[in-house]
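Dissemination and training. As part of the outreach component of the grant, students in the summer workshop were shown how a complex can be specified as a set of sequence lines and then modelled as a single object. The example used during the hands-on session is reproduced here so that future cohorts can follow it. Participants entered these lines:
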Amino acid sequence: MTWIPEVASNLAGKVDGVLWLITIMSVVFFVLITVLLVYFSIKYRRRSENDETPYITGSEPLEIIWTVIPSILLIVLFVHAFVVYKDMRTPPEDAVDINVVGKQWLWQFDYYNGKKTLNELYLELNIPVRMVMRADDVLHSFFVPQFRVKQDLIPGRYTQLWFTPTKVGTFDLFCAEYCGTGHSKMLAKVVVLSPEAYDIWENGTQVEEGPAVAGLVPAELGEKLYKEKGCNACHSVDGSVVLGPTFKGLIGRKGECTDGSTYTADENYIRQSILEPQAQIVKGFQPVMPSFKGILSEDDISALIAYMKTLN
Amino acid sequence: MANNTIAEHVYVPFLEEKKGLLSWLVTTDHKKIGILYLISISIFFTLGGIIALLMRFELLTPVADFVDPHTYNVLFTLHGSMMVFFFIVPGLAASFGNFLIPLMIGAPDVAFPKLNIGSWWIYLIGTVIVLIALLQPADTGWTFYTPYSATTDADVVLITFGVFVLGFSSILTGLNFIVTIHKMRAPGMTWHRLPLFIWASYATAILQLLATPVVGITLLLLIAERTLGVGFFDPDKGGDPVLFQNFFWFYSHPAVYIMIIPAMGVISEIIPVFARKPIFGYKAIAYSSLGIAFISFLVWAHHMFTAGISEVAATIFSFLTFLVAIPTAIKVFNWTATLYKGSIQLHSAMLYALGFLFLFAIGGLTGIFLGALASDIHLHDTYFVVAHMHYVMVGGTVMGFLGALHFWYPKWFGKMFNETVAKIAWFLIFIGFNVTFFPQFFLGVQGMPRRYATYPEEFESLMALSTYGSWILAVGLLLMTINLISGLFSKEKAPQNPYGSLSLEWQVPSPPPHENFEEIPHVTDWTYGYGKKS
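and obtained this result:
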């Protein structure tokens, strides 16, 4: 376990500089106070009820010293943190824009070249990016610890943050503003690729393929997609009800819809629920499922259906 | 009585004046009202604490195997709401403030005794309303951020209305204390002879009076949003979700000073007594309370650096936040200096005061990480904030509260508790608290977000350590509670002034009679005249 996440963006090292400076100053003062407390408590412990103590009420020179010195140190800290902050809030002219939509409880990324991804953000190493973000329902927050960036997503408004990824790898993206039942499941992966690998991804098919899907049988791919595309935020596989019907025993299930019609959960019903979720909602559930049109390919949908069949 | 002797004044402890539950519920004696608050806030502290233990039990493992995520969200909403609104805001002010203020200034009671008992009833009604709201429990967090709080399927209206009602208890208590301190000081009790707990209570009362109405109105706006669909916070209707945060924190930041300033006042009373030395820097401490109260109104948006506020606004609020650190640091240095060349007795009350200094230093210093712009971006909404706030609220306020309980226990209840058990309980509380919350600083730096029911496996070992700490803390608190309650049943009566304090409340019997003073005292010196004047 490391003390601090790895430095994977151009801003992270600067933020860490601020963290270290404050840490050192805090430790110095903390140790000073603690040592004095313990030392005084022992050295001046009561020896008898008749101990004589001096009538000391204060010292103006001391008051001035311990007002002025901390004030100077605090100003230094403030200025240093402000300078780094200013950099964090000033995207360079050549930053590449990526649109981010946060909605309960998944992350949608729309790239300038028309690609869309869900819960996976693809970035090119050393290319500065600017996240142009909005929320579709309630507040969310984009937080990548290894980049040291965070900004809320707000309905009705765009917010932005920028950074340059400086390490190839996969990093965690957390939602950092409480947004309801699926808040702790609103996770994504940030995949930083070398320029060559990014090229391959960028020129790939309309719907991204994600790492290593080759070699998986449909049901295995389906299980992978179930976890990576956010289905698990609302649908369980163990029979419990989260926000949507459980996938356990779903295939072949019959029941009533909110509009009075009846449904049978066959392949067509599943496909329709993924592409047009409001069409036939199971009675007792809210119309909150987003559409995955353009996000899941027909192959993906088939894989998910295959996975669901294993849950019967 | 047909004789010319003056009727003998027989001492009746206030606890024995007028018996029966009903007389307690309509009492106008500030000392009994303080007990009513003490019992109420202690019960809710216990309930809020049990909820915390449940939360930490869930967090032992990374998956939701004890409660489901929705239930976890309800639990943390309840924990925060109960601890903030039922326990810590009324807290020291309503319990010890009520008991001590008239006694310390040489008055027979507060300025408005009937308003005082009224305030307690309002408090009770507010808590009952919030508890009824549990039938459709809110899962919004105690901060009720919009749009989630305006749209979630829970009885947000009732819980926020309950909090609205509770606010009046705070406002009216603040009003009462301000008038009392201005108008009812005994002859000779000038402002600069007042005990520092009074200065602290005064600053707190101003905050209660001026800040609380803002949260009251804010909650009414939220209720209007939910019931009338007005759209204050709805962008589709021209409103702004972030507006709620500004309104909410305009109160809630001063509120955290309502929480800590009385505890600081308690520390200023305990240390001189158990070090047998005058408080070091009386005026610096007195005026820093007022300074902190004033600046506290100017820093609210430091809770919102990532909320979409402008960079200019963020910079200004960060600067002002650093300003408020200065009077706070001054106090810590002055308290420490009071120990120099003292005659220090490590009575349990003094252990709580020293514990406060240690823990509040950590809490205050970690606030700097959050007030500084660049570091806050990384740490906001992580466990670092959870750790910071518990260090100041529990390590600070609760330690101050427990110190006050152990210090004034003989005076208030006329009994003594077992001092050895008290020390052991203190030790368990101190260790348990640190084991619970210190790892959370590291969790926050590593990026563990707050309000997560489930979490990545890499955080499991520190999360589990934190949970084990909560068990030690719980045992310590339980032991302390048993000790204090059994002391009430002991036969031994407390002496009038077991610790040799010079403050007015220790110059009357333990417990005081209903009218406090047989004769209103005439004050000629401040209350910190310990030690040999050379």
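Chain B has 16 helices and no strands. Students were then asked to discuss how this feature might be tested experimentally.
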